Amino acid sequence: MSLHVAKTADLGFAEWVIEKQLRIEQMLELTLPSTDIAPQVLHSAMRYSALGGGKRVRALLCYAASELCNGDESMADVAACAVELIHAYSLVHDDMPCMDDDDLRRGKASCHKQYNDATALLVGDALQSLAFEVLSNTQKISNTKLQLSMLNILARASGSIGMAGGQAVDLASVGKSLSQAELESMHLLKTGALIEASILLGVANGSEVQIIAARTFAKNIGLAFQVVDDILDVEADTDTLGKTAGKDATTNKPTYVTILGLDVAKQHAQHLYANAINALKPFGASGHRLKELADFIMQRSF
């Protein structure tokens, strides 16, 4: 199978999203091991967890950031694929009984429910390893210095000072009263770190000015993404979310809604959004895809 290729410069946003979603789906399809290869059950569960679901927001951010600095699309493919594999692994582990214990993900049974706990644990491990295998492939990225930098970005975003650390803080915070600053510190790690990495991988070969501005955009839109998620957990239903609605309240987790109230949480999301858009000003018209994605993130609920 060859990757779907289309010229995207003149596409409207909705068409651009569909084109990129198709492109990353095909990239993942090509990358994930076939179910014909042993161990078949593990490979089947990996494909079940990573394919055919989600809006691919992190991959879209990676592609949009790459377009910001006229990056090479084949390199963006690799980065987007690696980010989506890390994200898929995190969802598999997050849903397990020892973590958030959720039976639904992306509108279907969570991996541990479809298979079993042991398989789900191995699926997460294997997807994480595959992400770094993809990103370290020297046939995909010829500039080894740039490649090492990209590997470092993804590794830091995934580990104890990134996503995994944020999940640890989240688990330790159940039933506790956090300040807004403490909550934001947690989500800069749990959710924001991988969103930031998606954007930084896209602009990895950009100028220092581009990288600094992209980082500011990423931090603000990453937090806005989480605020919107917290609002959706209150306002949306299970069918809309593709996961169990109201789970945060049921498990007594601190959220932006519980700390700020619903109306103030919405105002805070708009404030973060404004900061993100302001960070794109140095790019002029070339920042339009990231701006459209910021709108897309915000319009999921209100």
General description of the model:
With 302 residues, this protein is mainly α. The protein has a single domain, classed as Farnesyl Diphosphate Synthase, CATH 1.10.600.10. The protein has helices at residues 13-31, 40-50, 57-68, 73-94, 111-114, 117-135, 144-158, 163-172, 180-190, 192-202, 208-235, 238-241, 247-250, 256-260, 262-279, 288-298, and strands at residues 104-105, 108-109. A two-stranded antiparallel ribbon has the order 1-2. A hairpin with a 2-residue loop joins strand 1 (104-105) and strand 2 (108-109). Helix 2 packs across helix 6, helix 3 packs antiparallel against helix 16 (288-298) and helix 8 packs across helix 9. The radius of gyration is 18 Å and the shape is globular. The model has no long low-confidence stretch (mean pLDDT 91).
Concise overview:
Helices cover 68% and strands 1% of the residues. It contains 16 helices and two strands.
- Per DSSP E runs of 2 or more residues, the count of β-strands stands at 2
User: What is the CA-based Rg, rounded?
Assistant: 18 Å
Name the overall outline: globular
Helix content: 55-70%
Question: What's the overall average pLDDT, rounded?
Answer: 91
CATH class: Mainly Alpha
> End-to-end span in angstroms?
39 Å
% residues in beta strands:
under 5%
CATH topology: Farnesyl Diphosphate Synthase
